[in-house]
Write a structure and sequence with these properties.
With 321 residues, this protein is an alpha+beta fold. It has 12 helices and 8 strands. Helix 7 packs across helix 8. The longest helix is centred in the last third of the chain and has 28 residues.
């Protein structure tokens, strides 16, 4: 493209940059939103691809990026490209947890700005995070994005802390990997695992312990919460041990059982997303759940004391919405 202007990424304030580019429409905002630590969400890259840009990315992908619907841009003077790459990806995690999965394809781009020219050094396809069937994504709006900032800070905090609880780290990884899974039973199993990582369950009391402790964190229908969470963990156990989960409800037809599994998966997903969002965005709760000793002490408290520290239980259900 002779005569075309050089491609310049907006908001790049250092020689290195990284950004997550989402190329499918779901954003409902027009101005930039800061998440902190050099990460800014912008609604569009106002680019006119030149020959060097298209050479690096390819014509189809280059034009697609140029017309992107939303970009998480990470740049800060004196910060390495590797650190910026990690910040951009963790910021994407925060938006997935707080704004909920969009089902969009996303790419991580990183490189340097040299003499006004953007040199792309990395292009990576990120996992496609999706909702369970019957759960609907929420368009990204300024209030939702601003609420993602404390979640991002929480994720950064445990990512940079080598002493952070192994269970919280693994639970977060399980949550994100589950959101990209496409097999229904794997999603149910993964979300329950992510929740279990936070509960410090007593040995040999997995099902009953899960049902008891989940009542501190979430509420479905108060009169039946224990049974709901008990049955949810029981389904997870059957999937874990390669048994037929239909054994838990042998009287249901195949069609009704599939609807039941879908409902339970939606419930588990809403619970996992809600619980991790609260923990990561609340410094007092993050201090408890990121330290093994404090976590054990928390679950040894009387239920009423636990509830006062946790706050109002998160309402979850398995309905289609």
């Amino acid at each position: 493209m002779p005569g075309a202007k050089k491609v310049l990424l907006p908001l790049v304030t250092s020689s290195s940059f990284a950004c997550v580019v989402l190329s499918e429409g779901h954003a409902k905002f027009k101005t930039k939103v800061s998440l902190g630590n050099g990460v800014v969400v912008i609604p569009r890259l106002s680019l006119k691809p030149d020959s060097s840009w298209l050479e690096q990315l390819g014509t189809v992908f280059g034009n697609r990026v140029a017309k992107s619907d939303c970009v998480l841009s990470a740049s800060e003077a004196g910060v390495t490209r590797a650190t910026l790459q990690r910040r951009a990806e963790l910021a994407y995690w925060a938006t997935v947890i707080n704004c909920r999965p969009t089902g969009s394809h996303a790419h991580l781009l990183a490189g340097e700005v040299v003499n006004g020219r953007v040199d792309i050094r990395l292009v990576t396809l990120l996992p496609r995070y999706i909702y369970a069937n019957g759960n609907m994504p929420r368009p990204w709006t300024p209030p939702l994005l601003k609420a993602s900032a404390p979640v991002f800070r929480g994720i950064l905090q445990i990512d940079n802390d080598d002493n952070a609880s192994r269970c919280l780290r693994r639970g977060l990884n399980v949550l994100l990997s589950t959101l990209s899974a496409t097999v229904l039973q794997d999603r149910l199993h993964g979300h329950v695992r992510a929740l279990t990582a936070l509960l410090d369950l007593p040995r040999n009391k997995g099902t009953a312990g899960f049902a008891d402790r989940m009542q501190t964190l979430c509420v479905c229908s108060p009169a039946h919460d224990y049974d709901t969470f008990y049955n949810l963990y029981d389904l997870r156990s059957k999937i874990e041990h390669m048994l037929d989960p239909k054994e838990a409800n042998p009287s249901l037809s195949d069609t009704l059982f599939k609807e039941h599994i879908e409902s339970q998966t939606r419930l588990a997903e809403r619970a996992a997303l809600g619980v991790y969002q609260r923990i990561l965005s609340d410094q007092s709760l993050l201090a408890i759940f990121s330290d093994a000793t404090q976590l054990k002490s928390f679950w040894n408290l009387p239920p009423t004391t636990r509830r006062s520290k946790w706050g109002k239980a998160i309402h979850v259900d398995g309905r289609v919405r």
